[in-house]
Structures are given as C-alpha cells and as structure tokens.
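User: Show me a protein chain along with its predicted structure.
Assistant: Here is one chain, sequence first, then structure tokens.
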Amino acid sequence: MNNDKNYIDSMTTRYVYAATRWMPAKQRKDAARELESLIGDMMEERTGGRVAVAKDIEMVLTELGNPSAFSAKANGQEQYLIGPDLFPKYKTVISIVMMAVAFGITVAMVVLMALGSFSGIFDFLFSWLSSLVSAIVTGAAIVTFIFALAQWRGGALRDGILHTPWSPANLPPLPQNGERIPRWESIFGIVFGVLAMLLFVLFPQLIGGFFKTDGRYVLVPFFNLEIMRQMLPMLLLMFALGIFREFVAFMEGRYTMRLAIVTSISDLISMGLAVVVFGNPQLYSANFFPAVQAAAPELSEISWVFESFGKIFLAVFLFALVLDLLTTLFKALKYRANV
C-alpha cells in the first residue's frame, strides 16, 4: 500500500511539474495547486472511498491527457506560433539577444569610425542604422525560429500532427539539483552564437589587433579575409549547431539522453568542420604575427607559438568540444541511472 501511495504522489508531482514548468512564475503556483486539487477530486470520484492503487492515478492522468495540452488549455492557447506558455521565456531571450546585438553593432561601428572607415557623420549613421536593423532582424528571426520549433515540439500542435499517443509513462522525471541546467547558461550560449555569426558575417575585419605603425594605430586582421569568406558557410554551420544545442538544453532544462545525443551529433560535426576550417594554414593572415613580433620584440623567443598557432588553436577548440561532449554524456548517463 505504501508503494502505491508513493507512486501516486510521485506521478501527481511529475504531472503537475510537466504541466506548469513553462508557465509564468506568478501563475505557476496557483495553477499547480488547482491541478493538484483537480487530480485529488478525480481520484476520490474514481475510488469511491476505497484505497487508491497505482492503476487509479494512471487512469486519471490518462483521462487528463498530455500535460502540454492541459497547459495550453489553461492558458487559452490554441495553435500559436509561440503560445502563452512559452512567451515569457521567448520575451526574456529575445530581449537579451536584441540588446546584446544592438550593443555589439554599435561598438563595432564606433571602432570602424575611429579607423576612418566612413566619409562623414551621415555615412556613419546610415551604415550604423542599416547594420543595426539587419542584425536585429537576423537575431530576432533566429530566436523566433527556435522558439516556434519548441512550440511545435512541445505542444498540442505536435500531437495533432504526429498523432503520438500519450500515457503517464511519458512524464519526465523531476530534475535533481545537479541535473538541472541553469537557464542563463543556455541563454548566454544562444546570445554568444548569434553575436558570433553576425561578427563573422558583417565585421570579420574587426577580428584582429591594433598595432602602432608610423606613429598611428592600425587594425591588422587576424584572418585572411578572402579565405574567411570561402570558409564562411562552414563557420556559420558550426555556430548554428551550437545555437541549436543550447536551444535543446534550454528546452530540456536538465541533462537527458536526448540532449546527449544532440550534443554528440553537433559536436562531432563541429569537430570535422573545425579541422577543415581552422586546420587550414591559409586562413590566418600573413601580416598578423609579424605585427605582433614587431610590437613586442621580446616575444621572438616564443616564435614557435606563432608559427604553430593554427594547430594550437585547433587543438584547444577540439579539446573544448570533446570536454563538452563527454561532460554532457556523463551527466546524462549518471542521472538516467538515478531515475
């Protein structure tokens, strides 16, 4: 009997968690209490005074249906591009992305102005405004797309299209403390990916260093811009995979095998792309490292670092991807074993 009671309590808690986790914080507690009360009433009606067993909670939850659909009904949601349950998260992420994009574009344009890239203030303002609008639209489109995908993936719309049956066995387990992925980590990853894409597309010449030449500072690009343009599609694919991985982490909210599979696929593809892109010695500007040595002659003692920088950078990048893959896989397996 105790086992049945523990099972009923666990399934009730898991159902309430699944139905309310995407609701706004102010609404979540009230909705959780109402749903718990509804489940309790349905259990009393079903049992008619007898002791409840595990089968009873399964039948009640099956009658209530998919918690995503229940959440949608509670919010008055039908078939939105981004429904009321996800909109607060969408609003947070898109606000942060747009502010970061606006700040990044403004800083980049100010640097270009300082380098004398504009003929006058009106040229600067026109270029800044056009770049700002283009970047904000691009960033907003990326964020909107991934949240629309989340809406399709997690809501009643998906169930209507795929006709996937639901049962209480599909309820996600309650995440443990070490299993949770902080929302800010995923948001930071998405923002970083969007900014990196915009930087490489709009301002690749700013990726470099300032060096004093003939009494004035000159920006020397780190990359060979011609080769960079040829490699750009592969770089953008790498960033897109990273953004998608962070999006999955944001939606999962914890380390799961689904996240581990997505991470494995994205990281393995990124490794292959990194070898092709960063392993190409022509990618790096022939002027950058001589400028570094001229500015700091004492660094000539470690000239081997400059000569092998491409290989060192590639090794560090691959190490970071391998570490990310193994960490995610380890935690997913660890917490899966504890479910």
